[in-house]
Amino acid sequence: MDRVWMLRHGAFGPVSAEKQGGTPPRFTLWGVVNVTPDSFFDGGEHFSREASLAHALKLASEGARILDIGGASSRPGAEEVPEREETGRVLPLVRELAALRKDAQESAPGRPALLPPDTLISVDTWRAGTARAALEAGADILNDISACSWDPALLEAAAEFKPGYVLMHCLPGTTPETMQDAPRYGDVVAEVLRFFERNMERLVRAGLPESHIMLDPGIGFGKTTEHNCAILAGMEKLEALGRPILLGVSNKSLFGRLLGLGVAERGEATRICTSLLAARGICHHRVHDVTSARRALTLVENFTPWKD
């Protein structure tokens, strides 16, 4: 069986190539679906219900096996969105996708489906109310930038529902409004590693199985360009924790600072960075442009002398 880490019924495990659709067998692509009017990347292009559903289905057809839905911008400096408003943005889309997936799973073999039956639904939120509503509606994964620290009730929801859970590093003690206010570290890789160890222990103690946890180093969240580069150069140290790693570098400001590129000019840098880290064993990639990422990962899959 080809090794690729992917959520299966709430737990991570190796999945055969046949289950991967358009994604190269070793990798899993996460397609970003922003249901917000102020996304840094698409500027709210997919904010309406119809547009967000069409975009999600497009990403799935291009090879995204996980659709990551966000109803509140989490970019550094973003203003806070009330929980009720965030929930109102993401819940209709989660329900529609869950219904389409169920229809695909129950349909006769060979019948065309709008959504691949093994598609997984992730919700990018740090709020317990939004998380609970999404999980009850059929979401599989919580993608949490806060490590359950901004809304203590989220830890209870994660322990109760036991979804897949993305534990992301964000500079402790900060929020999106403040995280880029002169972030400081001694050894950023060592501190991110300790952060993961400490918070994984807290999550497991609360009742979330360790096998449900994925790690995201949080590129761009409470970090300078130098910090981001150090983390990307030291990813193997994070892999020592034995959990899958989700890389989210798609169109990040890191490329603007290093290469002087505007948001619309960062596609090539995103593909190169994705390829470099994939060749070093990072299997999960959260991207805006699924087609270009799939092509890049197909080359990595075929041109890399894998040891396993």
Secondary-structure blueprint:
Elements: E1 5-8, E2 11-14, E3 28-34, H1 49-62, E4 66-70, H2 83-106, E5 120-124, H3 128-137, E6 141-144, H4 153-161, E7 164-168, H5 188-206, E8 213-216, H6 225-233, H7 235-239, E9 246-247, H8 253-259, H9 267-279, E10 284-287, H10 290-303
Parallel strand pairs: 3-4, 3-10, 4-5, 5-6, 6-7, 7-8, 9-10
Antiparallel strand pairs: 1-2
Helix pairs in contact: 1-2, 2-3, 3-4, 9-10
Would you list the SSEs in sequence order as H and E?
A: EEEHEHEHEHEHEHHEHHEH
Question: What class do helices, strands and sheet pairing give?
Answer: alpha/beta
Question: N- to C-terminal separation?
Answer: 10 Å
How many strands, what sense, and barrel or not for the largest sheet?
A: 8 strands, parallel
Task: Give the number of domains.
Answer: 1
Overall mean pLDDT stands at 89
Strand order in the largest sheet: 8-7-6-5-4-3-10-9
Give the overall shape, derived from the CA principal axes: globular
CATH architecture, by name, is Alpha-Beta Barrel
CATH topology: TIM Barrel
Which key phrases capture this entry?
308 residues; alpha/beta; TIM Barrel; eight-stranded parallel β-sheet; two-stranded antiparallel sheet; 10 helices; 40% helix; globular
Q: In short, what is this structure?
A:
This protein is α/β, with parallel strands linked by helices and 308 residues long. The protein has ten helices and ten strands.
